[in-house]
Amino acid sequence: MPSDAGLWNQIKSSVNVDNITRGLHDLEASWILLIVSAVIAFVMGFVTMIMMKCCAPLLIWGIILSYLALITASGFLFYFKSNGTYQVESLDFIDNQLTDSKQALLGFLINFH
Q: 84 is in which domain, residue-wise?
């Protein structure tokens, strides 16, 4: 505690001590509820961990299938929202990319063989 009365008054005026004491009294009144909540959270954490151990493959496959469904649905949504405005005139660029990728693969195999 500061010995200077002016400094102490300035600290008290900048910090609302009433709110702090009210909060401490609230903690004192509800400590049982806080402990019960912590115990319930701890037990639920263990139950979740056991369920994850038993059901991990199902959960993983569910996530993978959900991701694929989301990507497919997004593709259909974007396709139907475009109203046919995106038209590919020629597919020659695909042939060129395939040729370039084959050459790159051949060069990679020759260099690192």
A: 5-111
